[in-house]
Amino acid sequence: MSPIKVVFLLLVMTLSWAPMAKSNFSVLFVNPSLEGEPFWGKVQKITEEAAAQLDINIDVIYGDGNRHIQLAELKKYLDYRASPDYVILMLYPGGAEQTLSMLNNYGIKFITLEQTITGLEKEEIGIPKKRFEHWLGEVYFDNYQAGYDLARALHLSVVASGHKGQVNGLAINGHYGSESDKRNQGAAAYFREHKINLQQTVHASWSKEQAYSKTKRLFKRYPDTHLIWSASDLMAMGAQTAVRQLVKDRSKKVAIGGFDWLSDSLSLIDEDILSASVGGHFMMGGWALVSLFDFHHGVPYWLTNSAITFNLSSITKDNVNEYLWISTTPDWSKVNYRGLSILDTKIKEYDFSPNQLRQRAETIK
């Protein structure tokens, strides 16, 4: 073979190999909830669509809403399956140290979603890359601000209904000591600032059924309640069902809202049954995957940073029309995940925001 042909063949091989250079690594996504659960199901779907677009091999396991089960499933996967290049997961309170130690001992780099660990447990695990060198960082939002924003949206709904005088509220939290506490602290701060009477706070373990039964008891105790702040949309819907059964006067409006932008909650906001939902964080798995794509191909962000943070957005009756398409079945594959990458750009920081969904609505629907 002539030297010219050899050079030509090498050039063809190099060009054909070039696209492969930005693909073919593996990620394990740990869905902390039950298969088919609305919120985490959407997080998983978007993460899988991002993986397909970025040509990343992705596996999924489930934590079934229990730290013991999640830890056992993760251990089983790592013990009996080929080790992934990266893991994306949410830490459960009470199981963070065991999980982080396991992943670190396997030498697998990983990203955590949300800041779910607080207090002494947070002090023990520290920050990414310190005690656990393979913990690249966290992708999370400000739960405190989000809780504050939901409280404000509910208060404004009460004011818009024409109520004057003292506003009385109830709060339904999720688990003890998890991200719901930060949300609740933000709400409590807003209530204090605006002299809203927070009559009682209860925990309902993220359960629609528990929120329903506890609201029935609470509303009988506090019939002059004007708003119910909830740490999730599912619990807000449970509370709303209870109020609808107890309040016979349909002119009496109780402002109820939660978190997650669930499809049913957006429809209920449109129907003026629920008042608000704060969310957009179902994109966080996809955003974490984009950052891993960049890191795998040389972007140094995770070498010098320990977090990607973003703010959530409030949906109320005033802007729900801009987001109703989310409550149908949008084609999440149409999101340009590659367009969110900072690979081969001069950009140093990520600009992830739920507002991007509104800007990209026409292409996603």
TrEMBL record:
Concerning InterPro entries, the annotation shows: Peripla_BP_I, SBP_2_dom
Annotated source species: Pseudoalteromonas obscura
Hey, which family's this protein in? Answer: Belongs to the bacterial solute-binding protein 2 family.
* Highest taxon listed in the record's lineage: Bacteria
**Localization, UniProt:** Cell envelope
Q: Which Gene3D superfamilies match?
A: 3.40.50.2300
Keywords for the protein's UniProt record, in alphabetical order: Signal
Transmembrane stretches, start-end: none
Task: Supply the name of the protein.
Answer: ABC transporter substrate-binding protein
Domain (Periplasmic binding protein) ranges: 29-281
